Fold each of these.
Amino acid sequence: MVRLITHNLLACHAKDCNTNNFPLAFKDAQLEIREAEFNPEFLKGFLPKIEWTALVDTARQLGDTSLPLEQPEMLDDEFLKNLHHVLLEIHVEEGSMTCPNCGHVYPISNGIPNMLLAEHEIG
Amino acid sequence: MPPKALQATTVQGDPETYEDQNVHNVYDEIATHFSSTRYKPWPIIANFLSSLMTGWIGLDSGTGNGKYLPLPLDRPGDIWTIGLDRSRNLLEIARKAGRSDFTREVLVGNVLDNPWRPAVFDYAISIATIHHLATHERRRLAVKRLLECVAPDHGRVLIYVWAIEQDELSRRKVIEDNDPSPPIGKDVVVPWVLSKELSKSSTSSKQIAGPQVYNRYYHMFAKGELLRLVLEAAAELQLQVGSRPKAEDAVQNDTRGIEVVQDGWERSNYYVEVRLWQAS
Ligand SMILES: [Zn+2]
């Protein structure tokens, strides 16, 4: 699966691509929404590790505008539910992810991204 | 069919090509059958995953059929383990591991790569994977990748590999050897007998009589070899080895290291668990 929880962790690892290699940009993304169990304690623990701007921008590109541009100080239920939906319920099933720096394309098929590089692309 | 003895082998040619032919292609062929035999989590690994803090995220490098992705079962969703593997066919199974109504996070990747933001994970596990790499250097690089992908101040890593020392519960026979304690492990191939009904080619090639046999490459680890690999990887990353320094030790700020928490043998496997620390 590529949900935004995983997308927020991924970075391009092509040879010599070390800066501006995150976040990968979705292209031709086919989405599926699937309900997941709400776990606010997980979200609170995971929150400090999120690259917030990347998450908000990517969610907006996929059509979800529920997250504020700045991480709120008060973690109320409404915010946590929106965060839950963005991180864990939006599945990118098909499409690809493009590196903003080198342009490398990582394909996604049947919900599984392929992060392999050809031998000459490995750093 | 009686168990077959392991066969000693010698890795020849380019190690990556060798692994493609003798590991990755085999797993893609045997994925369904293999997965049906691999469902019981080993206790040390289940305990490790149960001990992790809510809100943590981790990498299962070489996840196979994803049997560790749903753990801990009594705290579903408290942690998220992301599965990486070379075999797409195994990942198709892994994405539904545990509960068919629940999707796991999995991706096709190489355990020698690092397609992540730096040190983004809280923990990493690598179970029965590194022993499929065909040279010592590649195995060491795989351990380095695990140490690199977790947070330097609290990351936890657990590695499991196949041991030369096998127990009676295992149906495989250990290779005959006159040297009682080889300093380095042994390269072997292990036959996988694909049952007919699960063989992908059984419809297309009806003339094949009997089950198909695939040989998988393994490096069987000798006693102490896994720990040595971890210590070598730590040295290359300039990580000290020892317990986290106390405040009165007056260690220079940002000094980084690993502490070996467990180093043992369980059911024909060696395992090592380490915790990363950073002086502050
Ligand atoms: Zn790139």
Note: Residues 6 and 87 of chain A are 8 Å apart (CA to CA).
Amino acid sequence: MKRIRDFINNADIRRFRFWLQLLFFVLFIYGGYFAVNLGNSIPVFSCGYDKAVGGMCYFLPLQHQLARPLDVLLSAASISVLIGFVTFLLWFIVFNKAWCGYACPLGTMQDWITGLRKKMGIRYSTYTQPQFDTLKKIKYIMLAIVILAPMGVGMGLLGGEWRTAFCEICPSRMITPLFVGDVSQWSLDFSTKTAMILTTLGLIFTGLFLIGSFFKKRFFCFFCPMSAMHYIFSDGALLKLKKDGDKCTKCGDCYNVCDMQIKDIADDVKSTNILRDDCIFCMKCVAACPEDDALHVDILNMKLFTSTKGGFAKRMEMDRLEKKDD
Amino acid sequence: MTEHKIETPKERQNRHKAMEAAAVLEKIKHDFKEPPKAMDYFYDLHERVHCKHEALHSDKAKVGTMCIQVPSEIIYALDAVPLRLCNGFYADDEIGSDFLPSKSCPLVKATIGQFASNNFSDKPDIVISPTTCDQKAKSGAIIENMGFEVYDMEFPRTKESHESREYWRRSVRKFTKDLSENLNTKLSKKKLKDAIKKVGYAQHLYHKLNILRKDNNSPILGKDMFLVTNAFFFDKIDNWIEAVEALANECEQRVKDEISVASKRSPRIVYTGSPPIFPNLKIPLLIELSDAIIVADETCSSNRMFNDMVSVDEWFVNDMVDSIADRYLKGCTCPIFTKNEDRKRRILDLVRDYNADGVIYQAFAGCQVYEMEQRSVLEAMERAGVPILYLETDYSPSHLGQLTTRIEAFVESLKNRKRRQ
Ligand code: SF4
Ligand code: SF4
Ligand code: SF4
Ligand code: SF4
Ligand code: SF4
């Protein structure tokens, strides 16, 4: 048991993560070709506009459901809405935001773009603290669009083209289908003025996505409404990101590697549940923490992966001296 | 007729210092239960440097540092050696007294004293003075007046805010650039990465050794650990690494063989406060001569120098420099910061982690910041039910009687407490 635990705590999670992300990417983007169907309540951006999707982003069905007229929504049809939602929750409750760090195809794409930037030897950028504090609110506005726009359609306040308003501006709609050779989403819809504005915004956001995630790690995740939605339910999830403040020296090593620039991960020594709304549960912080058990990932209060001095030294290659060739 | 050589002041001073160092080394070597064999390297090293005044780095550019906040990784990456100049000699303390107010910190006085007498076996080419405590910060100008090249490195005195992180990062970037120009050496990605990993490995070895001190069979005494960490001030890093590798292996074996340097009843002490720097190991020696053992410490001449590690996400020069900067600010528990919650938390964590029975807090008379923090640390310990002894000391070798009595009484009370449990 101790051997297994040591093995996990010393593991190079970067490699583990890379392969897991690739696996999920194939599963979600090409799953359809292999008759994989994980339903349409997947709690990440596994885009429904991809013809071969192996499990669909929950937002697409959700928007369609919410766009029904109010009396339909509150009638027997509500059962299907409820089932969709419960399935979403069940998926989410187990893995928490680790869906983002390990399974989301759009998240994975951003990590690949980051990889490209690193190869080119270009440094990443960060937000200043005030920028961070302002920008982080945007994801809640996005979530409001996901929920309120279709409801507005249902209540007859908005035109039909608002039905999937968020999807229209979601960069995933244009980018994900490219992986199965489908470029049909790369067009502007001139049918109505609203449609034109929304699809134009979509194009702009797609451009921003590509440029943004080149310079900023996980650029889009910071604004992602799914992330906001996750946070509402994350307290009930089984997988947890925990901190033992007594053991933390506030050294900031975790903050230094955090793609999402979450300051609390280092500075908050009071909370035990340290998962924040921006977090993508990538566990990089746990891997980069040099204090024994200061940060850990728990499932049902059992430590699954915990920070150790030994694991840190191993991952940073500080547990031995590199042999000199000369 | 034989010619009488008249001793120059410098020679006389060196003779005094050698005597001072030799006396302490004698004690360390012979007044205790058998130390690990691998300690011989360190006994010998301190003798060579402090008694025989041997130079270790004549072939390299030498960068003197006045505090732990000066990033050694960057100095190594620029092919120079960092020499920590914080001084523990009473002989120098006396010389330094002429340059400072009478109630100054003995460490600062001793450091200035060494500059005043310009008596170095390895003389620094440039001195980096971070703006930490007032006395250190203002020493820079005094030293500069003595004809040394001094570089003031701005260090923030709050560390919680984002602004302070940014400020310090900028300060370290500037330092990197300026030092690189001063030494006429270019910083490369590879060299910096290697330096981070080498210093990281040294820290890793220190941790390895420390973890063994958690065992009830203590393989090594605190006085020896202070010699090991003090040696990092000036030793060649490669030699130091090799020696500590051997020491860690030997201690590991000792723990397996259940060889202990203290008895089972010896109270386990966490040491905190003003830094013991060779040869001023007065208090650690008194503690361990009173049948207690120092199992951990929270001081800038030892644990604080090694504890926090550099973590880098992307190994570009700028990121490495920023990560290095954070290492020296964010986790630092130096009393010069406005708040000291981190320090209290740290001491308590060490007490728990190393299964300690009590804490001994030394403040140098004249070190205002440690003196000022004393109250709040005492309160925090009392609240947590951890016995603590506060001592005010200086570098003078006299008046040991009263200190001995107080330490012995404290150790005795810890023993009684232990028996009752
Ligand atoms: S466009 Fe975006 S929100 Fe809509 S289904 Fe695709 S990934 Fe989900
Ligand atoms: S936050 Fe990022 S990883 Fe998570 S669902 Fe959104 S795009 Fe995907
Ligand atoms: S890396 Fe660990 S010890 Fe350092 S601030 Fe983060 S949680 Fe605390
Ligand atoms: S807090 Fe940790 S798990 Fe969350 S995004 Fe940052 S590094 Fe990843
Ligand atoms: S012991 Fe106190 S006064 Fe002396 S150098 Fe250290 S912090 Fe400054």
Note: Residues 12 and 315 of chain A are 6 Å apart (CA to CA).
